[in-house]
Records
---
Amino acid sequence: MRFEELLEKKEAKQVYLIKQLIIAGGQMNVHEIRKVLELTKKSIDNYIEELIEDFKPYGKCCQLTYDGATITFSKTPDFSIEEFEKALYLNSPKYQILLALLEEKEISPVRLSQELKISESSLSRKIRDLNKILKEFDLRIWQGKLMGEESQIRYFYFQLLWYLKQGYAQISARESHIIENIERGLNLEFMSVAKQRVLLWLRVTKKRMTIPDPQFKQFKEKFEPYKRDPLYLKLLPIIRRSFSFYAVELKEEEIMLHFVFLTGMSVLSQKGFHAYSLQRSKMTPTAWCDSIILETILRIYGPKNIRKELEETCYYHLSQIHLRLYFFVGDVEAYDRNNIWQLEETLSTSNIQSHVNQLLELSAKELQPQSNEQNSLWAMTAIKYLSVLSIIDIRVNREVRVGIYLQLDELFKEATKNMLTLQLNSLNGVIVESFDETRHYDLVITNTELDLDTKIYRITELGSAYDLKEIKKLIRQA
């Protein structure tokens, strides 16, 4: 799910345009905009005029200028475009419908359409649109209620509210007491961000735990291998005691959900997870997958190249990834995936994407045989694997040494060497320097014939994109 899907078509295109402007460096011409938005010149002019008006309340903090041919975005250093976007999302009728379903459990079309100041037919259309969004979470709105597995409903609302920065302000004494009970009972200390996550989870739980006959069938079946987990057994009396003041019978599934949340939703610190990992069974589906993926990564980079602390960091992140992949479907996409992949291609010296695909195949085999690549959780898992590999790629002790040997006039020689150095030094693990015959190089870049016992690349045209692409290819193979 992308947040733009909560907006009307025009607003979604405007937000998309702003993001593409930022990715492009703050400026685009009208031909690029037409390609991105797939609109006529007249429609683009109207979109941009409205955007300029929408930005006026922000004054000099955020501005758009348009001369009919080029649009330029600018902002002050302390302003984030997120402020503008978030205001759109929070005021959108689709978000308000979702919020009403959380607060009231069941919505009255007549009353809600009056509150949102829209017609009942418009409300029905927006609910149909929401059902398209909710489908990847295995949820749907039916007869005024949100239908689906309770675990998926809680997970969806937590993700939605967390990324919109809603629902974890002004902690009460009772909420603080519950969090302290969990910390003390599990011998953990939550960081401030982790406490905010727990607080939001508690509030979503409170709103949903009184729902009559919640569905837990699939979740309960998946949880079966975790019933003997030491952390879960510790959590049982803590949650029962902490929620004793609610006038409802606490179902065992509620405690199961708390366990999955604590261990899989970025609540445990790496130190806390390490202590837990020494006790947990290695034969649960996710723990087994953690081990298989970690072993694969170690083989990719070579066990000797990855220090123990880096291995533990990798193991910690994998545990979060696999718990979500095993227990849930769907995700909230807060980042532009295509931009992340393009950035990886410019910075990485190794073919990380092929390694990511390898890890995805393995985790699909272990956790989700029917994984759908169009599902956002699956797509975001690829980005998370990319992030784990990027951390290793940067920190692993692997250097590619490149020497530059040019026979040119001194001016062109210096300028070309500086250009190549600037472009190649940005690659992870690459060291670029002037050629020194006393040193060993993995690659030598030159414009003349050289008799060396190493890889050589002869440039064809100064500053050509082709040469740079081929040089990067050789570096990846080094």
---
Amino acid sequence: MAAGARLLARLLALLPALGLALAAADREEWYTAFVNVTYVDPATARVRTERSECGRYGEQSPKREARGLLAVAVSPRERHACRPGTRFAVPERAGAWIALVASGNCTFAEKIRHAAGQNASAVVVMNVGATNINETITMAHAGTGDVVAIMIPEPKGRELLMLLERNISVHVQITIGTRNLQKYVSRTSVVFVSISFIILMIISLAWLVFYYIQRFRYANARDRNQRRLGDAAKKAISQLQVRTIRKGDQETESDFDNCAVCIEGYKPNDVVRILPCRHLFHKGCVDPWLVDHRTCPMCKMNILKALGLTSSAECLDDLPLDYDLAVGGVALNAMVMSDDVMGVDIAGGRDPGIRMVGLPQVLLDSEPMSEDTMATEQSELQPMASGSSEASLAVGAGHLDLDTPAEDVKC
């Protein structure tokens, strides 16, 4: 589960990088062109000059300066320059000249090749029929050689065309303008990123479904185990001895230990619960503790094992091995190990199903005892309870057999 989460995180981290890489790959570099127009006004006989950054160089066009007289096709029907051998109205002894053609009817490469075939030093394409009348595009015209080619808006082209139709000589100079870098998202990039995102979303959804199914299973197993342990604890509590403190009992003396749960002393008429380890507590204090923890508040003895009702390890068979890591719940295995501190040492030769009732913890953790030692320790422990409770303690613990293992009761 943890490896799947790391893999998913890496895949999600790659998506922005992939989008940036595609965006960087799909970009267009283009240059504007300054168009300087010079002509003599017939009405005033004065030289007029106009300069505007209205052109755009073609994609395969050399980015350099070009100048010459402007010329258009002789026939108005050939102004698209789509026919090889298109004749242009070039003034005599013009030297370098620039062809003015209209867009449409054929490719830009054909137009430029036909004009270059008539010795045009540059080609100016008028963008006719565009949605935005002032729009220009970067023309693609592979295979046209080193002819300078630019595109100008339709209004500017119509203005130049009107001057030529009035037999006015127009001198045009083309110079390099501003370099532009335009980023755009191509259709291929959009499809690729969309498919990648959908795949990542499917993987994420599948992983989340799997994770929550496993979490639900683990939670159910934990709750089922807690219910079983709680039922076993209630059964064990019902078998523990209950006694009422009377006036004059040893527990009412000031030097007797207080209840370890509520930290209060014992008073006459208090009802106490006596555990197999000989520790006693107020019944109302220790019963909820035993239901939740199933251990003695003082020595951590497991009452289920002590009474031979169940083994906590049996209740954990239903849980997966990675329960604690996957769910992050309470480490029940660790709880069982802590309960086993009061358990019987197998290496010492004692059966783990037997609880040594009445023996102190230090003797349970030490080497096996002889019969004399056990008798001595039993005699030393007798004063812990009052004389009136000794018989009841013997009865309460009488169901425990020190020589035979307790029956295994399935939880």
---
Amino acid sequence: MADTRNPGTIMGEKVIAARIQLAREHLDRLRAILKEPGRWISVWFLAYALLGAVSSGLLPILLPLMIVTLTHHLSWVAYVMGGFNLGLLTSPLWGGVADSKHLHRPIFFGGFLVLLMALAAMPFLPGILTWSGLSLLAGAGTSAVATMASLFIVEFDPQNEWEPRLGWLQTFNGGGQVGGLLLAGIFVSNFKVGLICAALALIPAIWLGAKGLPTAARHHGWAAEVGDRMRRDLDWRFLANFGRPELLGGGLLRFSHHLSLHGARRLGDVLHTRFGRFLLSWFAVAFGVAAFFAYFPVAMQKAYSVAPALTSSVYAMTAAVALVLYSMGGQLSGRFGAGRVYRWSLMLRFLGFGLLLLVFFLPIPRTLIALAGFVLIIIAWPLQSISGTTLTARLTPFSQGEAMGLFNASGAVATVMGTFLAGPLVHLIGYPSLSALALVGILLGWLMGHGLQASDAAPARPDDLLAQKAQS
């Protein structure tokens, strides 16, 4: 029987059916996207998120404020926070012990326990030496957990799953940092309760780890150590594709298993190359900004009249926004060259610290200007992090694994040194010294970063090194 309906009606029904089919396809695609993270996420990732909340969110806010409030000694902040950063440098030790003794789970849970006990004891045991020692233990515990978390993925998951799993692991850590910063705004009026709650938050982290972690580590021969495999096999492009928390001076926890000093023996070979110049640039910047990040909650309150709760809230919101800027930074590095993007990021940070210093010399409202500068400083980190990682991989004259070790070690050592220097500077000069030192470090880094890599520049090669040696 022929269809006697109006041709227009038939056409309209076909259009509606096509739209319904298209909507179903979009819905199916959305469901697939939402299900995708489930392939890579494990229950114990939540434990790592709690670590991020405590070590990257609560501690950097509460600890400096507590020290200044209880002691009125500004210089103590630098020494206590310096102890924490120094503890973070123990990552190669934990990685080596895990590789040789296969003590992954004891180190993981031991790190949580050490961090928990250090935080719980801090409010009740005042004193510069006691606080510095406890802070050192807290940093070492944090480093142990972070290092083992990455190694657990490599130990138990196929190599083709390392990258997405590590990416989600660090994303959980960054999300935890945002939550911790928001919680810090609640506890700024009662530091003791805040630190005790931070310690208590690690109890469910231990439970989540016990519930989700593999029961035993795989055994590897001495010639196939896990750390070496990671440094050799991980793709550097992946390292720049996800958010890393801005921890104190600049993200000491980002892929802490790459915080290896084994490549230090190569330092003398690269000092006269573009890669060596980049390492010096990165060192100068990390050294310069470390002092500010040790003191920022106190400085924002005392020097710029920004309430600690507002500082932590703005930091949290800016860090959350910054997490989505990493992909943009990668696109910019691919389009304009990582060298240019790196210097752009330094210009943003220079402008931010410039605003913080400017308010001391001009009759302008400090609070709003300081907040604007603070936002610029934090928001520039994704560009700096991604472009720095890309430059490391492209400029290195030897293996990318050794280069990543030098890259992370240079920033970490500079951060520790800059943090300890902050104490005498603040004591002798005051808060303007924090932004002034940052400006000097960033300017030196910017100057040394000139001409590192144009968008079409080729990576340095071992042959280039030999030729330079022959010429010298």
